[in-house]
Amino acid sequence: MNEKASVSKELNAKHTKVLEGLSKLPENRECADCQSKAPRWASINLGIFICLQCSGIHRSLGVHISKVRSTTLDTWLPEQVAFMQSMSNEKSNSYWEAELPPKFDRNPIEKFIHSKYVDKKWASKTIVQPMHVVGQKGYSPERSVGVSRSGIPKKARKYSLEEEAFSNNMPHIASTTRARGGSLDLMNDNILAPPKATISEQSTSRKSVDTATDLFSLLYVSDAQQGRTVVPPSRWATFD
Q1: Which residue intervals define the domain Arf-GAP in the entry (predicted)?
Q2: Closest CA to 82 of 118, 128, 47
């Protein structure tokens, strides 16, 4: 589907109004190349306003160098208008004409434009080339100057309830596993001894042993008493 078809007449009219306002700003009142007044054309990937004559020269450079649009006759996409809002002739030339000598003769203009954008003869060696990023956001039809250049915030990954519950219970599961006793390390051939019993566990175990010993003693005494015969004294007296 053609992206331009998605731009309604109302939105296109707003784009035209915004571009008209941008072209009247002090930094855009002159053609970015020949410096003639009131430019009505633009290079959408360089972010500059240019005159009719220079627009024809820009077309001859190829779309990989410059993509030309009319500010009043062509349909603009929101992202293209956003880039024009973020740029200006002055800002663009701060890169492309950074090494250009003062009062340099720009004639013939065809050679000047070719040297400027194709050969990058006067381009800055320290400033990064301003470029149009496809899908750039931040455009507002009501705003004629300035654009938000902040990137789209990355959406934080949302954990599901199952993942959250698993993550929360992992420390508990690990501690329970370690407390169950000794384990065999097959890699190091070391047998890990079980944890020592606590004082309360030792006392409880000692009480259980003492109780068992007492019960055993009582049973032994009872059995011994049942197997012993007591002779009455009267029998000794009458023994012959």
Answers
A1: 16-130
A2: 47
